[in-house]
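Record type: monomer structure entry
Structure origin: computed from sequence
Chain ID: A
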Amino acid sequence: MSQLANQHGAINLSQGFPNFPEDERLLQISERLIRENIHQYTPMAGLPSLMEKIAQQTEKQYNRKVNIATEMLITAGATQGVFTTINTFVSIDDEVIILDPSYDSYEPSVLVAGGKPVRLSLNNDYTPNFNRIEDAITSKTKMIVVNNPHNPTGRIWTEKDFEALETILDKHPQILILGDEVYEYITFTQPHISFNTREKLKHRTIVASSFGKSLHVTGWKVGYLIAPENLMYEMKKVHQFLVFSVNSFSQHAIAEHLDVVDFGEVSRMYQRKRDLFQSLLKNSRFELMPCDGTYFQVVNYSSISTQNDVDFAKKLITDNGVAGIPISVFYNDATDRHMLRFCFAKTDETLIQAAEKLCKI
């Protein structure tokens, strides 16, 4: 869709990346550091000063104390963290439960490991269906992937959701959890509940986070994993021969930036953008779905067209000059409920221009 948007000069609300400037303080730190002697390998698991800052933030945010020597790993983006996690623990014929619509890197990572992806649909309101999850568990189930806050739908799990999962997993102690929490600092009307806070699940959970999302520097590709020592010990073996160590410059810059960044302000900034985008589309023919977190707004276009969502998304670019992502592509069975995902991590000017075009439809 981004390629098609470029071809037609459309406003690109499809791919999930910000188009506004980075934090000026981060740029100033970067300008100073570029001349310093920081350009050689960091330790394999990550830059110690960055890991210490992450540990401090994790304790502040989630009241979880993390041993940086044994329970943390800096990764080349959260996607590499996802791949490393799955390919450490999933073997041939192991089953991995993935909740659709889902981020597109989960299934390929399972397939590379020789495992079997088990794709289960969320409810129509994009909340988890725990009856479906429990029915899908077999003796071969090795892992469940939980993306919260959720891409592409923007929904957030509640306390009751976590309690339901805990009840199910009490019966299946062999199952691991991959908690993809890359949008953890982009939440709105309700707080994000992290696996870092779940005492019943922490011992079997790998939590993936992303500075690309939290600091809106997606191209830096720096993320991290937090997991108990016995799991982290195994993941480091894969990480060492996959990337060895992560970009040193970015790690140094982020480590300094964490002294001044306010993740609460990051969340408030995105909430302002969400509220602006929603207000601009209020009188359009699109129906706005709930957006609890992330920087994605899902809309239903049923009152506009009966076209399938892929064709409608293409027509929206060619005829109306705005690019979105059809939700069906996030499903294994291409479920089409006439939904599109728009990214509102854009300048106010971009959002206003896009909304003007969408409101004319």
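Annotation 1: The longest strand covers residues 141-147.
Annotation 2: Residues 263-281 form the longest helix (19 residues).
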